[in-house]
Design the sequence.
């Protein structure tokens, strides 16, 4: 085996500079203002793939942002790995909380600071760089297909269609993704489960216009007060979700599985200290790790209405809004949950207001096997480069496409992420450790070697 650690070390400056170029493109998929930048990021990925040695590189149009495809077929008798990642990023706001601008990457404390540094540009780019190295060394033991999308952060709504119409092109033996985190730099882990998602927006309307809160207050329902009551009623004292039928399809884990989860290292005090909270909160009889992985949740992501400007304005607003997400666990169905939410939310509205529930995107949860060749190849690869065995661990985040890979292409995914939960993804000051970036590039070639060997056996 080629000494990839050495190779990565030799090229590290170049690898970091090239990632910086990509991070400078503000490819925010949620905001139409950034449209040309999102397209520019796709163009940039295309060029990186060509430079690395991929063939058939193309920008595939969809009804939304394009998917960049490229492949290297070394030998049809070798196994084929489909690499998935995303070049779009979350909006950078609140801007004033960034120590340095979101799209001007810098290194502080051996970490790369920029929106998308970890999610997912930095992690996705590791795959292109590892591929480039393997090509240079004439040491590519598998066929590779890259599929890098630009709408992950807005729900990947055009991806299922792309999979359906490109089954032949995407034919592979497994999917490899780096878009999740590990437990720690000294505790490598592989993600074996992702939560699903049901995301809704609610609108509560009271009077037909904003009113003087003195003249009308006390007699006319205030939609913000009502919305707060309604939201508060969605969870009980034990933080259980009060929507009838919500837990019907949830699978309870066996004692064995829960014992395994409890084995992974977790430091509650460090967790609280890192978030600057005095206490945690969640369902009784579940650990923090369980609450954020194997249990469903309901969270308000944003709430607004009325007067929020400088000083005070006495107003009884006409409308109130909230964006609410529910994270789902295996066997829960996003559309069914959205329907249950809608029915329940409408039913608890007092007569004094009107409510409207608008579904946004959803996504299925996923669990990935640990006895597959791809899981073993990833696990061995991490052990080879970290010197410690990788722990299987379920994550709380969502990558809805993982379920689609299985459903539409019949492919299992291995989630070999190199980020950390503390990378502040989706938050101000997102960052990605240089250690993590380089370790990823070093580990990926081992994955291909292990996979080719296991498949051949
Ligand atoms: N990479 C994340 C998902 C993730 C993060 C999984 C950390 C595991 C650990 C992905 O980009 C993401 O943010 N997904 C969204 C869902 C999507 C439908 C908007 C999420 O989880 O909120
Ligand atoms: Mn991501
Ligand atoms: Mn994300």
Sequence:
């Amino acid at each position: 085996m080629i000494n990839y650690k050495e190779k990565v070390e030799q090229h590290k400056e170049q690898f970091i500079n090239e990632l910086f170029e990509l991070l400078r493109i503000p490819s925010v998929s949620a905001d139409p203002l950034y449209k040309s930048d999102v397209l520019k990021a796709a163009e940039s990925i295309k060029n990186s793939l060509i430079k690395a040695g991929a063939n058939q590189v193309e920008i595939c149009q969809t009804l939304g942002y394009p998917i960049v495809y490229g492949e290297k077929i070394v030998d049809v008798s070798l196994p084929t790995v489909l690499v998935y990642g995303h070049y779009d990023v979350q909006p950078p706001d609140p801007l004033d909380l960034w120590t340095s601008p979101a799209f001007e990457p810098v290194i502080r404390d051996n970490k790369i600071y920029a929106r998308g540094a970890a999610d997912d540009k930095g992690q996705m780019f590791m795959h292109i760089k590892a591929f480039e190295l393997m090509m240079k060394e004439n040491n590519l033991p598998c066929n590779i297909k890259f599929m890098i999308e630009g709408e992950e952060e807005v729900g990947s709504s055009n991806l299922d269609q792309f999979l359906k119409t490109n089954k032949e092109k995407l034919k592979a033996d497994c999917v490899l993704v780096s878009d999740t985190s590990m437990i720690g730099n000294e505790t490598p882990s592989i993600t074996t489960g992702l939560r699903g998602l049901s995301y809704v927006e609610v609108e509560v309307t009271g009077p037909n216009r904003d009113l003087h809160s003195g003249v009308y207050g006390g007699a006319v329902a205030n939609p913000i007060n009502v919305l707060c009551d309604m939201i508060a009623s969605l969870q009980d004292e034990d933080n259980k979700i009060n929507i009838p039928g919500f837990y019907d399809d949830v699978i309870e884990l066996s004692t064995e599985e829960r014992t395994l989860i409890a084995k992974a290292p977790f430091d509650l005090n460090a967790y609280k200290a890192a978030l600057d909270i005095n206490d945690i909160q969640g369902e009784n009889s579940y650990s923090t790790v369980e609450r954020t992985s194997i249990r469903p949740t309901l969270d308000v992501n944003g709430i607004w209405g009325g007067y929020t400007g400088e000083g005070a304005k006495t107003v009884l607003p006409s409308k109130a809004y909230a964006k609410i997400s529910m994270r789902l666990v295996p066997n829960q169905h996003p559309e069914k949950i959205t329907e249950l939410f809608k029915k329940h939310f409408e039913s608890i509205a007092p007569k004094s207001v009107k409510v409207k529930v608008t579904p946004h995107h959803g996504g299925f949860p996923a669990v990935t096997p640990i006895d597959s060749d791809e899981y073993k190849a990833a696990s061995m690869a991490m052990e080879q480069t970290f010197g410690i065995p990788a722990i299987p661990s379920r994550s709380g985040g969502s990558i809805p496409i993982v379920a689609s890979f299985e459903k539409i292409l019949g492919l299992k995914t291995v989630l070999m992420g190199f980020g950390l939960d503390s990378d502040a993804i989706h938050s101000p000051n997102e960052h990605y450790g240089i250690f993590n970036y380089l370790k990823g590039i070093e580990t990926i070639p081992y994955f291909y070697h292990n996979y080719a060997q296991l498949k051949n056996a």
About this structure: The mean pLDDT is 97. Residues 342 and 357 are 6 Å apart (CA to CA). The first strand starts at residue 55 and ends at 60.
